Amino acid sequence: LDRLARDPYIRQTLEREFNNRGAKIEYVLGDYDETPEGEVRKDLDATFAKWENAKRVERSKRGKRRKAHSGKWVHGMSPYGYCVDREAEDGLAIIESQAEVIRKIFHWYTEEDFSIKEIKRALVVEGAVQKKGGTTWAPSTINHILDNTIYAGYCHFNKSSRVGTRDVFKDKKEWIRIEVEPIIDVSTFEKALLRKKENRMSRRTQPKYEYLLNRRVLCSECRKTYAAETRWSGIRRGSTGKKYKSQFYRHRMANGHCMNAQVNCRVLDKIVWDKVQSILLNPAALVEGYEQTVEEHKKTVEKRLLQIDVLERNLLKLEEKRHNLTSVYLDPDIQLSKSEYIKQRDQFDEEEQTINKRIEILREELAVVPEPAQLEVLKKFSDEIADELLGDQELSLAKKKRILKLMNIKVFYHPDGRILLDGWLNVPEEHVAIDHGMSVPGKPRVVSTSTSTTTPSRPTTAQE
């Protein structure tokens, strides 16, 4: 009877509908008479079936929680890149051919700045095989891979519960963390999350026109990126009838930025590229800056990882304290009052929230620390560029953008019009003042330039 419905009301509704349409329901198990007694037996059997199903679900959840607490995979089908291995400590084993695809996806997204669609096309070209054997990749599949923490070495069980037709997230205190063998390092995963977060905040597509410093001009106050924008001037009476294009990097309060400001692309691009060009023509400065970059990068990463490790150990101690507090409260000999129990528990919760927020900030800082380019690649590329520069050849925009990426150039724009040039590879501090009293609309004039050649600049984090 419970194969039709476990709820007595649903069963009665279905039977009534079938009967109204001239059909009769017969059950294989259970000889139910068409009498009031038969109806009562149906209701009783359906009620017990409903109760038994609820107990079965509860037993299943309890068993899964116990398995999750022991550090075993309990989510059913294994994710792409893994297979179920009952002999493994975490219950999963890495499939190396699929793991290599995962590494490529994260590398393309974090290091090569591929979009989701570009990653999809690259996977199709390489003939990467999905978990079920197909070679056609959906953008949602790639997006889910970039979001999945399991590739960084951990996942959570008991995160949500079903309420009607929706999954509702539970409090993080109820989540059960499961450690697995990672395919990528945590910093790479955090870089992917940070880029996705920035994309959501900007809510804009790739610009229609090419810009040298797209996503490299930042506000010195709020650290948000200036948007690249193109304007076409209207056709005026008596003119030649042509439209003129003006390109800007623009900050807008309407988009959640701290102020309204804009700077002309042609002026700013020339200032930045002239400085980069002078560095490229000095190979000794490149090598010196690279060595300093590597050393600074190691120190920064080690410091952030050590801080995260200490904070995660503090979280484990807090969880143990919370467990001990509950044991004390339940012990009748100690007689801890309910108000005192709640007060101490709330203190633990506040400490946990503070630690989790600090861990999130540190991981974001770790994600924005870029990996220095390989010295051999950099020297070879800079030699090629130097030959072209000395030969008075005009470099293509694509080559210029690749150079800026290798050197991790960032341009910080101040409210008073000053510009700070920052990045890897011994880039000295560059301060440029731009006059916004424009004689021609959209064409600011460079007023003064001052250069400091003391110590090389270092990467600037969002926290600083």
From TrEMBL:
Keyword Chloroplast carried by entry: no
Region of interest (Disordered), ranges: 436-464
Compositionally biased residues, Low complexity: 444-464
InterPro entries for this protein: DNA_bind_recomb_sf, DNA_bind_recombinase_dom, Resolv_N, Resolvase-like_N_sf, SSR_resolvase
Pfam families, A to Z: Recombinase, Resolvase
GO MF assignments: DNA binding; DNA strand exchange activity
Coiled-coil regions listed in the entry: 294-365
Keyword list, A-Z: Coiled coil
Domain Recombinase: residue ranges: 79-204
Name of the protein in its database record: Recombinase family protein
Natural source organism: Candidatus Desulfolinea nitratireducens
